[in-house]
Design goal:
This protein is an alpha/beta fold and about 450 residues long. Helices cover about 30% and strands about 20% of the residues. The chain has helices spanning about 30-35, 45-55, 70-75, 135-140, 150, 180, 230-245, 270-285, 300-305, 325-330, 340-345, 370-385, 410-420; strands at about 20, 80, 85-90, 95-105, 105-115, 155-160, 170-175, 200-205, 210, 225-230, 255-260, 290-295, 315-320, 355-365, 390-395, 425. Bound molecules: iron/sulfur cluster (SF4).
Length: about 450
């Protein structure tokens, strides 16, 4: 069927003239259906998918596989392929970047951690002797200010967003981390990390909601409350935006995704899993390099257990306490689904060979970090009968949160007790604490 739409020059289109039709977030099948509705062959949808999710193009005019008149028609009809824009960048002295990513009127937070935080340790995706990844010439061109000398200046620097095309660019605030919390922020020695801009592996922490309704007492994000669910495109778009910024080569680079940013993924289940399917089937990532963390939403875990292995990420349970009493105090969700109910649901997940369930455990001084707590956690993990490991996280401070960081000696004693009890135990390195990028610190804020 031939279209009777009028062909309009690309230059003649004003965005105000048409209602935008965003395509980012649709899979190849849906894109094919959209193309078919215009009388185009279905395989044009595959070309669109390739352009959006593999080439990471942001303008329809750039899709060279589509005929020029079709591109003009799509633009005239308001079709858009762009991923969410990175609105602001906060860079930590430890190499971590915290991004505010524009999703409609709001922003959500996404964190890039070169070298990861060791949360992936013990799950089969640890770094080996990988080649050091240097910034590509394109990256160096895009981010000329991304150098240690710039970061080390204790002043805010305004620079252009490298994600935006010419004409769209706007000045962004690059907040120097040292301004955010002062010089007492604990950071890793720069000698432990490759030079800035170079990385051997990386982890991206992805948000699933704007804010969160779960109300964990130790978490800064909880203070926002739930504002809204993110769409599948907004969740997957965080990953593609960060990939594009860092020049990630899918299939070559060792990048892990953790769905542990703002929000509870299993309270936005359909959009979360649709995003995972996009990332696996359209972007080309392995679900075994993805981990989703839940506070223990039992119906969500039960649905997750039914997902086919080719799109199911690994599962982490945010345990954080040795028993129901302590857990209910710091995680009110435990009153609805207690530890036993959560573990029962987790048992329904068919694990892959060598796959383990991760129990995340936040150490709060005096509340969850005592030797008796460690022994109780060891008993609890053994009782589950699950192949499991424990990731310890020293609590990250946030303004107005009434807990204290555990002492280094308490952290080590806790780790040693669990390890001594035969529980595989890993200590997650704090990343980006100085820019409020660390676990439990994400809050849509620029003031720090
Ligand atoms: S820890 Fe996670 S689930 Fe709990 S309030 Fe924070 S974002 Fe929500």
């Amino acid at each position: 069927m031939k279209s009777d739409s009028k062909l309009v020059s690309l230059d003649a289109i004003s965005p105000a003239d048409v209602t935008p039709t965003p395509l980012f977030g649709l899979d190849a099948e849906s894109l094919s259906a959209r193309m078919a509705s215009l009388g185009e062959p279905g395989w044009r949808g595959k070309q669109l998918s390739e352009a959006i999710y593999r080439q990471w193009l942001t303008e329809i005019a750039e899709i060279s596989t589509l005929p020029k008149n079709l591109r003009e028609r799509l633009v005239a009809d308001g079709w858009q392929i762009g991923r969410p824009n990175i609105a602001q960048v906060f860079q930590s002295v430890d190499g971590t970047d915290r991004y505010l990513i524009q999703t409609g009127a709001e922003t959500v937070e996404t964190v890039w951690m070169p070298e990861g935080d060791d949360g992936e340790s013990g799950d089969g995706t640890e770094a080996g002797a990988e080649e050091l990844r240097s910034p590509s010439p394109q990256q160096e061109h895009r981010a000329p200010s991304d150098s240690h000398s710039v970061r080390s200046k204790k002043m805010a620097v305004i620079l252009s967003d490298p994600e935006r095309s010419e004409g769209e660019s706007k000045d962004l605030l690059l907040a120097n981390s040292a301004d955010q919390v002062g010089s007492s922020a604990p950071v890793r020695s720069s000698r432990e990390l490759p030079p800035h801009g170079e990385w051997r592996r990386a982890t991206i922490c992805v948000s699933s909601q704007v804010g969160c309704a779960v109300n964990c007492q130790f978490c800064l994000t909880a203070r926002l409350g739930l504002q809204r669910n993110l769409t599948a495109g907004e969740i997957a778009g965080q990953v593609v935006s960060v990939f594009a910024r860092h020049g990630v080569e899918v299939g070559r680079d060792r990048v892990n995704l953790v769905f542990m940013g703002m929000g509870e993924p299993f309270l936005n289940y359909d959009n979360f899993m649709a995003a995972v399917r996009l990332l696996v089937k359209e972007v080309g990532l392995s679900p075994q390099r993805m981990t989703v963390s839940t506070s223990g939403i039992v119906p969500g875990i039960e649905r997750f257990a039914q997902e086919p292995p080719d799109v199911r990420p690994k599962l982490a349970i945010s345990l954080n306490a040795p028993d129901d009493q302590v857990r209910a105090e710091i995680m009110p969700i435990n009153r609805k689904w207690n530890i036993e109910a959560v573990v029962d649901a987790v048992r329904q997940v068919q694990l892959r060979p060598r796959e383990r369930i991760t129990f995340e455990y936040v150490l709060l001084a005096g509340v969850t970090d005592q030797p008796a707590h460690a022994r109780a956690v060891a008993r609890l993990v053994r009782r589950t009968g699950l192949p499991a490991k424990v990731n310890l996280i020293a609590w990250n401070p946030g303004p107005g949160i009434p807990y204290a960081m555990p002492a280094p000696a308490a952290i080590e004693a806790f780790r040693a007790t669990l390890a001594g009890e035969g529980i595989p135990t890993y200590l997650r390195k704090p990343r980006g604490r100085d820019i409020y990028a660390a676990c439990g610190q994400l809050k849509r804020t620029v003031e720090g």
